[in-house]
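ERR on first pass: missing label on line 2. Operator R.T. fixed the label and resubmitted. Corrected input:
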Amino acid sequence: MELLIYGLINSISLVLMSIGFALAYGVSRVPNFAHGALYILSGYLTWIFLNRLQMPYVLAIIMSLLVAACIGAMLYRSILIRVRGMPISEIIASFGVGVAILELLRWFGLRGTTYMLPPFAKGMVYIGGVPVDLQRLIIVGAGIAVVALLWFFTHYTKIGLALRAIAQNERAAMVLGINADLVATISVALGSALAGLAAVLLLPLGNITVQTGYEVLIFAIAVSVCGGLGSWGGAVVASFLIGLAQITTVTYIASHYHLVVAMLTIILILILKPSGLFGRQKELEERV
Amino acid sequence: MQERRRERLDRGVKVRSDTIYAVSSAKEILFLVGPGLALVTVLLILPLILPPYWQKVLTIAGVYALLAVSFGFLANFVGLVNLGGAMFVGVGGYISGVLNSTLGLPPLLTIPIASVTGALLCTLLLLPCLPLRGVYFAVVSFIYPLATVMIISATGVWGGTDGIAGLNVLPNVWVNQYVIILVVLACMFALTRLVNHADIGLVFRGVKDNELAIRASALNVTWYKAQAVFISAAMGCFGGAYLTHLYGWVGMSLFAMDFSILPLAATVVGGTSTIYGPLVGAFLLVPISESLRSFGTLRIVFYSVVMVFCVVFWTEGIMNYLRRRYEQFERWVRV
Amino acid sequence: MSAKLILEVRHVSKSFGGIKAINDVSFNLRQGQILGVIGPNGSGKTTLNNLITGFIKKDAGQIIFKGLDISKWPAYKIADAGLARTFQIMRPYPTLPVYKNLVPPLYSPRARRTARGKLGDRGAVAIDILEEVGFERDARVPYKLAGTLPLGYLKRLELCRCLALRPELIVCDEIFSGLSMSEIASMIPLMERLQDEGITLIMVEHRIKELFKLANKVLVLNFGEKIAEGDSSDIFNDEKVKRAYFGGETTYVFK
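pass 2 clean. output:
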């Protein structure tokens, strides 16, 4: 029972961490390697808004999400747009920006245990005899809400449909009058805001450290690759797979192995299915 | 309005077509081999004239240059962008460290053994990822060193987080410098010949540019990728083993992200499409980053920014730029 | 027909998503024959090629090449067995001389095997092969950069890449498309010579007129299904083919 509940919580945390990355890649093929940096940055900004500027918690969160979205959009508009279509340059550029942000934060003194976000709600509840604190319940609720909203957004709203259209066939979508660059900007901004959201939800469980930024990036990549790059539905499934596998190892073997298990899961999945669980990497790429 | 455009004229060798030179005088030979000779001479003389602190920097720069050349070879000539270069360094370092501490083998033996067996091990570990292309491979290779660090710190093998100290060190500062410089030069020449003249170099380039044609030519793409990874990994493992015996210590920091990022930055800055671009990039970036050491992690920020700038705005890189200036006149002509 | 069977395709199917690109196609091919594959756009011709040469995995069916079941083999192994192919879209090494483009296939285990140690310098062998297929008219062409070649030469280069493997069967994917009439006219004797040398050919084409001159046997595909198979005159008179492909009464096309 404990395994199941904590597995669920862990899986949903993974969903939250990775869904922004998966979305940006899935829609506009932008591998946003600054994802982890944006995650930490929004957490840090929330902390600043909260403690230095004495804002109310909700306002601080909204502000930092907006800033994250703006940074994502700027990152795309000013840098990534110039290297579109060259995947390796896209990776190097966004990764460089991410590392720059993280190491700059480290230089500003983001280390130790000073930087903590308060949980939304204190307290415990017992589910089937297992103690679960409220913050984790909120995470589960928020995770489900995010996935549901995203599904709704991409299936029923105009922008969402445009996002999906671009993801499926960029050229055809452009012929239909969808502005590919605008849509890509929106998707990267949305992805960054989702990274920020994940940060404010998950960071109250621990400290804000630079190392977490790298770890989040790794988890986001791991989950997205396993789910099949470009399919955020696949990312959700992969999150559950990896999340449950991790909790199982933590319970039965040792807690240090959670990243190792993530890694092994990736390798295993890739050996069995090179394009990921739901990916559609073409068997034959014959470009005209 | 007066319109102008830039005109480029080849210089140096009178008779040449796209790739073929007809050399007719000693001067023209000098023109062709001059830059290479200058590079070799500078690298061989540097250890003699540098002050002690910078001699140390030179050895580190040599290691990074080796890594950068190995990264550039894989990325530019085989099409595998390996963001986990630290994996090679770490594996090489640990193999030589463990051999030295448990069996007591001297560095003279452990370094070559570590280079070869480490490369073999890394190739085997990366084998499942080799069918992956482009982004997929980059992403997965990035995770390898990080996961290895986690395994080491979780299991506590080979000294766990403390590493293994008290290993044999290389005899003296001269050996330190010349070993790495000679190895770098040897690797560079071997790789340049490989990618430009050897038949297998053409196969590697085919793997990068036109994988379909290679498969249709009855060549097993994964097998050739594995060979290329082995070559690259051998260089990386040598770097790791060398570092181990330079410090007399091996630890988890050999898997640190520095070893993955700086070669990448050096390749981008130095210029892609040549073997020596990454080398030049590394010998430029490492001293700069070393002189920024007092700023702590700000130097990582520095080279990330340089890297992003080069990738986005100056894709040509230093070497391609210099080569163009060296081989061609540029002048403005009226149209 | 006494020549032995070289290729048997048995009930091969492949679907992309919900669309059946190839549905239960079977045919046999004897050594030294030229098989023409025709069909309207999107009828699955290229997919059939890719299935035979292993570039796409099939959903069902078997492919037997020289008595070996190659259904599950990867593409390079099929090529190694002697079943080569050309690509519709050629991507040579643009910055290398033409002859160097043939070095990778000559490097392959098959080329080494078939040369029995007489390979020598691969560049020289490459130039021999190039001259065999019509680069001889201008001796400088093999040394030009591949990126500067006109389409006609690129198609020949693609064929050379196959010949470097000394294959027994070549699958040509629209090797005539985009060429001028005179270029096609110069390609036809080449194809005939290959046939004389005992190489079996599968030619996927849109240029029906030229194809019918060459082919011993024609296979017609429509919507992924085989609708007719036979020699050229049978295909002319086949009602199904006329309906599906030529839209009713169009025999004048061939006059």
